[in-house]
Amino acid sequence: MANLILLVGVSYNTSKQRCQRRFASAIALFILTTLCSNGLIVAETVQKMTETSWEQVLIESVDSSEINWLNTPDEKFMALYRDDTTGTLQGGMILLHDMGTHPDWPDVIAPLRQFLPQQGWATLSIQLPVFEKDGQVSNYAGTLASVTARIQAAIKHFRDLGNSNIVLLGHGLGAAMGAAFLTSNENSGIAAFVGVSMPIYQDGEEWMNLLKSIEKLNLPMLDIYGSNDFVSVTHYADKREQAARRSGLRVARTKQLTGFNRPATAKGAFSMEGGVIAYRKFQIVGANHSFRGYQHTLSKRIVGWLKHHAGSVSMQ
After folding, report:
1. Is 281 helix (H, G, I), strand (E, B) or coil?
2. For strand 91-96 and strand 121-126, is the pairing parallel, antiparallel, or unpaired?
3. What CA–CA distance (Å, rounded) separates 235 from 116?
4. What is the pTM of this model?
């Protein structure tokens, strides 16, 4: 009898465990299905968590006087501002960091943020929507609306400070985001565009296709990269130049020269035959995507180009 009771007890407990496992599996399946059906919500949550982590890092490591909180209609985000230190303001530079990083990233962004104010350029480095450092470009598929709103908020911030000569600079994915913004906001007031290590992505949404974006740009543009940069950057260097020439020919046909009415050097760079409008491609020999060891060269090349194509063309 005792053996029978024991057997029944074992059978009951086994059945109970199976029910619990099945119930847990059903719950897990429900959660997974919900997450998949609300992928955008999950992506936004991961993005904000990553941004919050970076914000905490920057709050602890950056001078508090440089931290600004800007607002879009939908969100608040961090931006790091440095004023001109020369007393002769040339303009303002909005800095867009690379994939998975932040507004004071030690590669490219932080050195430019520190160097440009010494050359008359105030800088505003903004936090872009961001996922983990080693994420995929496909993660950023739904971020263009947020990127656009943040760049517009940065432009407004400069104008509120009385700085209306504004240049946009992006590194890596930040360059793709900046170019996509410019193609959809031709009257944004941006005077020139600097693309550092501009990659050509093989997947992602249409706005991530830099070649198509470059074809639509009609403002002075610097395309600068390292000889040891990512293959997605170096392999397509000639194609980026060809896209810029197509843009120049398009502008020549339609006479849409808004971005070139002011700087004389920009007008001089325009060729009806060649279709080149103030576009310059420059390779820094030996540099890779991070430009470590070549930061000063990168900064000097950018400043030199700005003097010819964007320096004090719209200060009021």
Report:
1. strand
2. parallel
3. 29
4. 0.81
Task: Write down how long the chain is.
Answer: 316
Give the Cα separation of 124 and 143 in Å (integer): 20
Contact yes or no for 187/164 (Cβ under 8 A): no
Nearest CA to 132 out of 104, 101, 107, 105 is that of 101
What domains can be seen in the chain, in order of their start residue? 64-309 (3.40.50.1820)
Rounded Cα–Cα distance for residues 118 and 55 (Å) = 26
User: Tens digit of pLDDT for each residue in 124-134?
Assistant: 999 999 987 77
Q: How far apart are CA 248 and CA 257, in angstroms?
A: 10
DSSP per-residue letters across 82-137: E--SSSS--EEEEEE--TT--TT-TTTHHHHHHHGGGGTEEEEEEPPP---TT--G
Beta strands in the chain (DSSP E): 67-71, 76-82, 91-96, 121-126, 166-171, 190-196, 221-226, 279-284
DSSP state of 44: H
Q: How far is CA 115 from the centre of its chain?
A: 20
Q: Three-state DSSP class for 193? A: strand
CB 184 within 8 A of CB 219: no
d(CA 17, CA 32): 22
Q: What is the pLDDT of residues 146-198, one digit of tens each?
A: 999 999 999 999 999 999 999 999 999 999 999 999 999 989 999 999 999 99
